[in-house]
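idk why but the lab printer keeps eating my pages so im just putting this in chat instead. protein + VTB:
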Amino acid sequence: MDSTISLEIIEVVEQAAIASARWMGKGEKNTADQVAVEAMRDRMNKIHMRGRIVIGEGERDDAPMLYIGEEVGICTQPNAAELCTIDELQEIDIAVDPCEGTNLVAYGQNGSMAVLAISEKGGLFAAPDFYMNKLAAPPAAAGHVDIRKTPTENLKILAECLDRSIEELVVVVMDRERHKGLISEIRAAGARVRLISDGDVSAAISCAFGGTNIHALMGIGAAPEGVISAAALRCMGGHFQGQLIYDPAVVKTGLIGESKEGNIERLKSMGINDPDKVYNANELASGREVLFAASGITTGTLMEGVRFFNGGARTESLVISSQTKTARFVDTIHMTGDKPRAVSLY
Ligand code: VTB
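predcted complex ->
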């Protein structure tokens, strides 16, 4: 993978975050998403790369932009051989979520971000638009906790790995009816629960960083975002496991079909013969090189949201690279006004 991509990709998530943040608090989640998609796509198409969207806004018919299979980048043009170097012509796979937590943006709440993951061709699991049961935990617990164990067992293991009591653990869970039992069990085990209304990618990656006071993410969210979370945790050595949910009795709304058998067939047609398989971070983001980038739209645990001022905007982003073994926080001032002016540092 060409190393300049990791620098340019920062601008991709920054531009998506800025576009979406203009719609913060306006109550229009679809617009907040759409403008992020457009901005992300525009900026991607200015990069010397040969990208293919493997996780995006949906199938081509439903999503006019950043649909699954869409090619992005200068090196996808017919005359690419004249425009690009051999390195830049290597095919890469891209998973995007231009506005993760659309409701959070629409209602001006914390924790939304523009996010993506990149790897060489075949390096990211092309997850179907299903739900996924997820378990994320810090590097110290990687490989010790296991989604096949009960939450109570995992909390005991987590406490041991982190050298603290269960009472000192905080688990993030999405506030959903389907998590009623899970929430009761975590509380009964002694840990504390942080309920979020949306945005489990932010919660998952927060597990990889000490000092966030987030020690695990448990529960069911969307599968495509599970792959993006796994990409970050794979680079950081954190724990991530995901198991697809295909039984409408477990999750009734949204992404999966009405019939369990029908869903199993759908998975088979996508090449997934074992619907109960537990995927770990290395399987969901298996590439030799994996790159993760995110920019805060509204303020979250790891990043500030976009702050607009007269003549510009300021963003905070995070780029994690398996190649350089870095997690880089980038604080950027974008000067958009015509007249040069002094920018406050605080
Ligand atoms: C959302 C969103 C998450 O999953 O909850 C979605 O906030 C699906 O769950 O961040 P619901 O259908 O219950 O809302 C995520 O997008 C990602 O996992």
